Amino acid sequence: MSKLVKKLGARQVSYAVAMLGMLPAAHAQESPAADPVASSSVVQVSGFRKSYTDALVMKRQNIGVTDSITAGDGRFPDLNVGEALQRISGIQVNREEDGRSASVNLRGLPSAFAKVTLNGMDFAAPVLGGATPMGAFDSDIFSAFTVVKSVSAADQSGGIAGNIDMVIAPALSRKEGAFVKLSGEHDTLGGYNSPKLSINVAKKYVDGQLGVFGILTRKEEKFRRDSLYINQFTQLNPTTTPNFLARYKDYYAADCTGQPSGCVAAPGGTGAISKSGVTIPSDIRQAAMVNDGSLTSGAFGAEYKVSPQFKLGAQYFFSNREMKGTALDILDIDYRDANTVIDPSAAPFLHSDGRYYVMDYNFTNPRVYGSMRAQPFVQKSNGLNLKGAYTDSDWRVEGTGVLSSATNYGYQGQLDVRNTAKPLGTSGLGNGVTGRVGLSGGLSNFLMNFNQSTPALGAAQLTGPWTWGGTGNTPTVTNATGDVFIIAGSDNYADNKVKSLKLDVERFVELPWLEAIQGGAQYNKNDYNSRAYRSSAAGVDYSKISTGFVTQSAFAGDFFGGNAGNYLRNWQTVNYNLVSSTLQPTIAGNLLRTASGWVNDPADGGFTSNNFSMDDDIRALYLMGKLDGKLAGIRIRGHVGLRREETRQTVISMDRTGTGAAATFKTNTKESRYTNNLPSMLLAADVTDKLVVRYGNYKTFVRPNPRDISPISTTVVEDPVNGGFTVSLGRVNIEPYTSKSQDLSLEYYNRPNSMIGMAFYQKKISGMIVGENRDALLCPANGYNLGLGNWSVVSDRCVSDLAAPAGKGLNGKYTIDVNGAVNSPNDLVAQGAELTVQQAFDFLPAPFNGMGGVFNYSYTRTKGLAPDGTPAFLNNVSPRSANLILYYETPVWGVRGVYNYRDEYNLPSGGTFSGAARAVKARGQFDLSASYKLTPDLTLAVDAFNLTDTFRQEYEGTAAKLRRADYDGRTYQFSLRYTFF
């Protein structure tokens, strides 16, 4: 019985912390994912001192490494859930994502490596590709967010980095009460104002045996992000650069025969200084994205205590983010045309990549593109959670059922008007557009100007007759002068369904060192369906294209909040609504209409790779023993367990043969099975009354998001010119990657309500999914039974025994160019350390006794090799991040300041839109929150975000080669909360 008393005591402490503030039940300890075997650090909006004190009590009583944030005064003091989570050590929010999607990295690993759960259970998250967008949920419906950094056998699998549990507290753990909160948000960029309403009610009946609650929120969202892209860098053209030989012959080779990659030749070149040419920024884009829509979320529940031992509960939640008015306006000035004249106005300088660059120049006859892109999206999720629990002095039995579904849907409708570069002619002016570019002075001194004030896009670019590109449903129509009108865009859908049943059984025992034996079983059926389409210009009556389709951009006067130097104000764009209503196409019988209203292009690669379904049937069993005893006078607590999961995966996808309109498709079904055995051991030692040491050793794994691996079967494209086939292999045989992890944590409680802690971790990850294009490694004799003959390796080439056309192929046989993805044979090791210093100054005399704060610092690194032997690294992860939190509070008012810092990190290539691989500049941001009780029932709160007005900047090599900059401005939120009872 003493073991049970200790167990229930820890649980009551957890509930006490959870019941702080207006939404009191934050750490739902009845859920195994929030079991008191995990330690917690809790950050709150109000009641700072008490929340930190209770957090330390939980940390001392519990075992594994876990951090939490809880709602105070019915709100989280951050812009969204992701921004709130980053206050925790080891978490980084990904601000490069548009639309405040706010996915987060955890413990040195990208966002897709973390598992997101709801009340400790799987649920259907609105995931399209990558990780769960935390911005899809209104934080007001949640009581807490718990980050489980070291997982046990009882926790949901799927998080190598850890589990992020979104907690909706059960009805009986909530204090009775009701409040309404009116809020408003003001974004300085664009001057947008957005209202919000939240209603929260909790009530108990039948002498406290029956509890019900309801939370409903509605928020209008309207905010903007401005971006500057330098998408391309290319070399000066010897033909159109004035006085080229006299100025730049020493930077070019005369001939690149036998020279290393990167050599650039020009007639008359000497190569005396360089053989890589002189490079300029040759494609510069100004872009403004307005996100416009609403977020509606709700949570409702009931819980009934049938007897002192038996409880039944039900919860339903939903969240619906509909951003139907989101749009992106782009002005693209492209200087790469062979007829464009570039006249540098600065001397070349040597960059870190070994090339010489000129960042300032005059130009004549560039391509000028105006593009308006409607980009609405919807992120929906809902779920029903049913639970029954029985607990007495000997047993605890819990059964949980989940029915959940989610949708992530969005499309881009792209409409462009393009003034192309023209032959220079005798005037030497081409299309007549001239101006200057200056990037050497950094972002604040950016220069891009036209010499003329007349619009560069107008009637001339919208006058027919028009010619469509034709076969393959191309997006392009061209007029007689070579100007172009574009109809393009992509539709992407993902539907996710989760059905889950779980049973947990715990037997309390009175044995030396053994406190309890716990086991359970779980069944999941997870269904994921993906669809994609690509818009084209087919079926349109081009005679209806009119000069009214172009209009002045709404962002020409305040781009980047005036912080982008002398940006281009001669900015025209497309009147999207007018074009869309005027040019709706006629749909042929064998074609589809996309969501934006245009004709689908079935030849597009995205149509093939992203139309599939993936169903997982998962069966899991686990068993663990809970330990409690003394060794050499030191109390040791912990548990040792094993979880076993069996997965049957069924993928239905499309094979494609050929390209363009001649492509043919067929469905293909592939079934695979795999098993994962996941041992775990978590221990906590109370070394002294001030020192606690924790150790964890466990195995976890991650099922990759289906869209990230595109589980298509195969595409085959013939190259008749060279006598070969290009084969893109499906990825249905990819297995989850696994990790063996170890944690070590030391916590020193130097005075009451204070702590200095240090945590270390290592994760050895096996089976990372990597691209593979070395033909010799993907060349089985049976040729994957594709009907392309028998294959063999000749030197480093893959060759079929099928005869190629005369003079084609290799030795008269078809060559096979193969690419695909494999589980890497090499391990990747992620290591890190986390420092946390939490101090309360309540021992000081007034008024200083209201002060307190937290400082945390995280460091991570990776080690390992890619399959080709090059050093492996992870994109999107900063090696260092830190938070400094200071607060001061009285019984009437409180204020909190937070400074967040994230070190630079790498990003992968973003294709034609974002350019080559690059790094994100280190960034710091200061936020401030305050609250004041106007009356006992009425509270005013004010939050301010990004008071430092910090930009996001990406660069390649060094900051001298800017690739992208984002500006969001400052955001202010105001709220009035009235409590009825």
Automatic annotation (TrEMBL):
Residues 1-28 form the signal peptide. The keyword Signal applies. Residues 460-947 form the TonB-dependent receptor-like beta-barrel domain. GO terms for cellular component: cell outer membrane. Keywords: Cell outer membrane, Membrane, Receptor, Signal, TonB box. Residues 75-162 form the TonB-dependent receptor plug domain. InterPro entries: Beta-barrel_TonB, Beta-barrel_TonB_sf, Plug_dom, Plug_dom_sf, TonB_rcpt_bac. It is found in: Cell outer membrane. Pfam families: Plug, TonB_dep_Rec_b-barrel. The keyword Membrane applies. Belongs to the TonB-dependent receptor family. This is TonB-dependent receptor. It comes from Duganella radicis.
